[in-house]
Automatic annotation (TrEMBL), chains A, B:
The gene is PHA2_1. GO terms for cellular component: cytoplasm. InterPro entries: ACT-like_dom_sf, ACT_dom, Chor_mutase/pphenate_deHydtase, Preph_deHydtase. It is an enzyme of class 4 (lyase). Residues 252-330 form the ACT domain. Gene3D superfamilies: 3.30.70.260, Periplasmic binding protein-like II. PANTHER family: PREPHENATE DEHYDRATASE P PROTEIN, PREPHENATE DEHYDRATASE-RELATED. It comes from Friedmanniomyces endolithicus. Pathway: Amino-acid biosynthesis; L-phenylalanine biosynthesis; phenylpyruvate from prephenate: step 1/1. This is prephenate dehydratase. Its EC number is 4.2.1.51. It comes from the Eukaryota. Keywords: Amino-acid biosynthesis, Aromatic amino acid biosynthesis, Lyase, Phenylalanine biosynthesis. SUPFAM superfamilies: ACT-like (SSF55021), Periplasmic binding protein-like II (SSF53850). Residues 6-220 form the Prephenate dehydratase domain.
Length: 337, 337
């Protein structure tokens, strides 16, 4: 390809999605472009103003990113051309970023300690230990998803400190850089700490060592980017192997008739009929009617360009049972067992 | 029954859950007791300090309440005795509450109008019209779920106004009552408006006329409350009727072996085998291992106390396929088709 490809990601700079985008789309071959919302990333890919996009899909501790699911549900018909063409897993390691010494007289006293918590049960002891004294910290900034991921550390070392939700962890680091009092700290990434020249007061704050986020790579249905191995071994008539099933993933959404709850089981049975392994199921309100849902299933295997693989047959099978369905893409499995 | 029963609900006073609790547990037969968090409601029922509890489960626009799902998942084993024994559907109609006239010189000028929005597409026009002039409003308080439910009204009539997330819609009304400037407003319930003596600046702000929330009623597994009809028609050997299936709902959670994705389809097939209609499916991280899930399915029908109904047989069938499973209760369907 001649020009340098542009790839949209959920920004700002130094967000975890930025890091995922850089992993999958290394410079100098690609230019990655920050967007304000997940909807903006979908819109940029849909309109063709960028060739691909990167959005968060699920976190191993917090679960699905419902904004992304709702954009795939696409009830307003704004993103008809969007397909998933890849995934990126990124370990999410939060740092406590700030300033190591507060100006005199700004010491954060009256700190509640972990022993004062009168919750349902005592908190687990945090794995992470502070690298600097934290007594001067009186205010914490982060994205709301991060608090839940760092519960043990916060309860053990920063209990009772005021928490302010901001739009992203990287925005939190930026706010702390601009705060002259020196008494605020951000829960954010290593990259955001380095970008903003902040000190690392603690590292690996997350309760769960395996804390990670899965991002999906989006493209337009009609793009002409060649992807190595995308059609490998799928000549018409060539049988699918177990390896081919394990190597790819497919995302499908569907709705069922209202007041026909048997149809949901019927749709799921179609995947089983063709021996397809379901790896996840989600549902969201369809907003078509009250208590009507759109379902998302992820299966192992891929829709073949040609021929009649198991995924192709299952999708055909949905025609008879689902009210509507949509193939949202097939891509190479990036999770090594 | 001799004493007056105490029922815990997710508070504070005048919350939507409070209204659901009053609908299901009318005074003077019951005393309803507010709790600070959903976890507190579970804990009060589990400990037996109240006989029943009421928690939000899903909203027709926003989807599942993940805090409630995570408490049912009960990964820490704190709520082993909790069962669902009922449900309440409540239409959620938001009001804009505040003061109709601002002190002089506090006029909220520089209001962005809907035409200035440079979003993906133009917003829908709001169904609701203001009952009073809103020019003096410079600050909005509500629970974060409410913003998304009132998107059309906010974009049309209060675009660009600062929004502050608080812990509940009733808390928002309380804050506005205490704000002497008169320039703040809350998105909250009619009941909260009346309780706080606020003016109704607009009513029925929700985009979706059918906006409603489903609440679940919790009890302890070993309680001795008699429920009319609970065992009706379920004498051993008496066949289940279609009517019995339509009249009850059952909630079940299960996990499958990690790296055995075929097991998920296997578990779902068990329900189909016994002719049980799935009405919803949800998944949450199990936190047992990274990318391991706990699944929640809701089915029509009930687990019989005695005899061998379809639900009883399906639960037995899960033994062979699921890694673990838990019956979370059966109750009378409150949604009339």
């Amino acid at each position: 390809m001649a020009g340098k490809e542009e790839v949209a990601f959920l920004g700002p700079i130094a967000s975890y999605t930025h890091q995922a985008a850089l992993t999958h789309f290394p410079s100098p071959h690609y230019t990655v472009v920050p967007q304000t919302t997940i909807a903006d990333v979908f819109a940029a890919v849909q309109s063709g103003s960028v060739s691909q996009g990167v959005v968060p899909f699920e976190n191993s501790s917090n679960g699905s990113v419902i904004f992304t699911l709702d954009l795939f549900a696409d009830l307003a018909g704004r993103n008809p051309e969007i397909l998933v063409c890849g995934e990126v897993y990124l370990g999410v390691h939060h740092c406590l970023l700030g300033h190591s010494a507060a100006p005199e007289g700004q010491d954060g006293t009256d700190r509640t300690t972990a022993e004062d918590v009168s919750g349902v049960s005592s908190p687990k002891k945090s794995r992470a230990k502070p690298l600097r004294d934290l007594k001067h910290i009186t205010k914490l900034y982060s994205h709301h998803q991060a608090w839940g991921q760092c519960n043990d550390f916060l309860t053990t070392h920063l209990n009772g400190i005021e928490r302010i939700d901001v739009s992203s962890t990287s925005k939190a680091a930026e706010i702390v850089r601009q705060d002259d009092s020196g008494c605020s700290a951000a829960i954010s990434s290593r990259m955001a700490g380095e970008l903003n020249g902040l000190e690392f007061l603690a590292e690996n704050l997350e309760d769960n060592e395996g804390n990670s986020t899965r991002f999906l790579v989006l493209r337009r249905r009609d793009d002409r980017i060649s992807r190595p191995d995308e059609s490998a071994g799928e000549a018409d008539g060539e049988a699918e192997t177990d390896d081919e099933h394990a190597r790819y993933k497919t995302l499908v959404s569907f709705t069922v008739r209202h007041n026909e709850p048997g149809d949901l089981a019927g749709c799921l049975a179609v995947f089983q009929k063709y021996g397809l392994n379901l790896t996840s199921i989600n549902s969201r309100p369809s907003n078509e009617a009250t208590w009507h849902y759109i379902f998302f299933v992820e299966i192992m295997g891929r829709k073949r360009h040609v021929g009649s693989g198991a995924v192709n047959q299952a999708l055909k099978g949905l025609d008879g049972v689902a009210q509507s369905w949509r193939w949202l893409g097939s891509w190479e499995n990036a999770l090594k067992a």
